[in-house]
Design goal:
alpha/beta, 21 strands, single chain, 632 residues
Length: 632
């Protein structure tokens, strides 16, 4: 593969900017995945997909999990804090915990806990269901189980069961009445957990979730409430149990300056609490470490202007400085950086099923007759005469003639054949106008809009609402690119539409280092397998996906890459079937089949169907329940 061409295509998709060393274009034009940056091992995504479809008989969409990327992200995170503590002579330790809300799938959680045999990786729970799962999982002995969120008596009793099972459990108090329940249940059961207080800081993060921090935040105790908690803990004789101070200023923080301000304020609160005679040992700095989705390394909402190491350095340095100034011990640091731990490990593979064009390149040639309406005659003259000097004027004139043609059609003055003829001439004139506008150094905005209108729509075999809900709900950008044919220049401009019967089921914003693209460069669709991949979907997308149109979860495959560079599929999780989704919607599939059989039986009895045809129809209906919800 020509190196110049390879670099041009790499720049088109910015894969080296957002790929974090995990993804790159290979010499054969396929996209490669590596277990870690600089690792000699790699595998071709196209070869993995071909294997799953041919040898394993799976169908797209496919969710590929790479557990080695999970392990590497945890290792990178922990090593960043280890380096920072050594550089700044920080005496506290780093305790990473994984928030189950980010991705509660067992395959993900157990990978972190397995890696945590060398790293004290704990878990964070915000509900009784999450806590039930966490209680039974094996974790490193010195790791933490942090209980966040609003709690009732049952939640706190469940946390106390974890204490009785020998686990280090921290119940983080969000409201004063929660502390009263903890004190009462601890007294009655004789079991004392570690207690944490969540502080509501003045500092806020930046980006989409800036409003989740600050004085109006949903969670956290005010300064006066923190003081009241300390008073009540001391009165109950539980001062020794108060071991953690927690704060969180928002997810996907884009600006490093906001991190510094929050760390300074939190460290000061920690020091003042210590000076009140409470020996807090842990400072939980929450999540917030962002992922560079577009690779721009800026404060843009889909990016971050810092590295993982810079985040750790700022946290450690600022907290150490404040503690030294206040003459209090450095706390152990707890992090809940779930997004950066999980985002990279999942890749969603989409197959293109068809192309929906605004106008087709293979339209029949239009012949204009003398008796054609004037609008058609003038559109033909514009189509024949448009050039680099008049394309703006002719484009505006074409818009006027199109409106005139539609008005005449509404009045019954133009036939359906004439309308079709006029539409072909109009869109072909627009296509020529756009092509001529590209030669101009700074094309007008209207031609940038025209580019999007002219772009094809590639029909993808997936549901945005199921597999990439943040793309629809909050406009989150995810990197998307082909996994093969990368030795060819992409010549088509397209947006993506999904299978759902919803106009919002589309993706028409794409990552770019300098801007947000409204079209994606793709290859011409040749009615043969063509696969795209959506990256960085490992955080939140699975657990927040909906079942719009009863499209279920896609097929999943867990893939590892061996030392010899070969990939191995270690686990397959079949996607939801039609029957699964009917059960989800509270239909009784057996009852549905029985009703359908009665309907067919009546058709047979009335002579509308033969017995053989009726039996065949019933069998085909029953078989449909075992099919997957996506296109075959």
């Amino acid at each position: 593969m020509n190196e110049t061409l390879r670099n041009e295509i790499a720049d088109t998709y910015d894969v080296e900017a957002w790929g974090a060393g995990y993804f790159e274009i290979g010499p054969q034009g396929n996209l490669l995945v590596r277990p870690a940056r600089g690792d000699a091992r790699y595998a071709s995504l196209k070869e993995i997909v071909d294997h799953l479809i041919t040898a394993r008989q799976l169908k797209s969409p496919l969710l590929l999990r790479f557990p080695q990327l999970l392990e590497n992200q945890l290792r990178r995170l922990h090593e960043a804090y280890e380096r920072a503590t050594q550089e700044f002579r920080y005496t506290g330790r780093h305790f990473p915990v994984f928030p189950l809300k980010v991705n509660p799938r067992r395959e993900v959680v157990e990978t972190f806990l397995k890696t945590g045999t060398k790293i004290p990786c704990g878990l964070e729970c915000g509900s009784k269901a999450e806590l039930c799962a966490a209680l039974a999982l094996d974790r490193p002995a010195d790791s933490l189980l942090v209980c966040n969120g609003f709690k009732d008596v049952e939640f706190i009793k469940l946390a106390l069961l974890a204490v009785q099972s020998g686990q280090r459990v921290v119940i983080v108090v969000e409201k004063l009445n929660e502390l009263e329940i903890v004190i009462r249940e601890a007294r009655e059961s004789g079991v004392t957990p570690l207690i944490g207080l969540r502080a509501k800081l003045y500092s806020r993060g930046s980006g989409k979730w800036a409003e989740s921090g600050g004085e109006s935040a949903k969670f956290g105790l005010t300064t006066s409430e923190i003081l009241e908690c300390i008073r009540r803990v001391k009165a109950a004789g539980l001062s020794d149990a108060l071991k953690l101070l927690h704060f969180h200023i928002g997810s996907q923080i884009t600006d490093i300056k906001r991190i510094k301000n929050a760390m300074r304020e939190a460290a000061r609160v920690y020091c003042k609490v210590r000076q009140l005679g409470v020996n807090v040992e842990f400072l939980d700095i929450g999540g917030g470490m962002g992922v560079d989705y577009d690779g721009s390394k800026t404060m843009f909402e889909a990016s971050i202007n810092y590295s993982m190491q810079e985040f750790a350095n700022n946290a450690v340095y600022v907290i150490r400085s404040v503690c030294d100034d206040e003459a209090v011990p450095h706390p152990n640091l707890v992090t809940e950086s779930g997004r950066v731990m999980t985002a990279y490990h999942s890749v969603l593979i989409l197959s293109i099923r068809d192309e929906i064009e605004t106008f087709a390149d293979d339209q029949p040639q239009v012949t204009v007759d003398a008796d054609d309406p004037q609008a058609i005659t003038e559109l033909k003259e514009m189509f024949d005469g448009i050039n680099s000097k008049n394309y703006r004027e002719f484009y505006h004139d074409a818009l006027e003639q199109k409106d005139a043609l539609y008005t005449q059609f509404d009045l019954g003055l133009v036939s359906l054949e004439d309308r079709a003829k006029g539409e072909v001439l109009f869109w072909e004139t627009c296509a020529r106008a756009y092509k001529l506008s590209r030669a101009v150094k700074s094309p007008e905005e209207e031609f940038e809009t025209l580019r999007k209108i002219l772009a094809s729509k590639y029909l993808c075999n997936f549901s945005v609402f199921r597999s990439a809900p943040d793309s629809w709900a909050i406009g989150q950008l995810f990197p998307i690119m082909p996994i093969h044919r990368l030795h060819e220049l992409p010549t088509e401009l397209a947006t993506l539409v999904d299978l759902t019967c919803d106009s919002d089921g589309k993706i028409d914003r794409f990552v770019d280092i300098k801007d947000v693209k409204d079209v994606l460069e793709l290859h011409h669709f040749r009615q043969e397998p063509y696969y795209l991949a959506m990256f960085l979907v490992g955080a939140y997308q699975e657990v927040m996906g909906s079942n719009h149109n009863l499209f279920g979860q896609p097929n999943e495959a867990q893939v590892v890459i061996d030392a010899d560079g070969r990939f191995h599929v270690t686990k397959i999780v079949p996607g939801n079937t039609v029957g699964d989704m009917l059960n989800f919607a509270k239909y009784d599939t057996a009852q549905l089949r029985e009703r359908f059989e009665r309907r067919i039986a009546s058709q047979v009895e009335s002579g509308q169907l033969t017995r053989e045809a009726g039996d065949r129809i019933v069998a085909e209906y029953a078989a449909a329940a075992a099919q997957q919800t996506y296109l075959g």
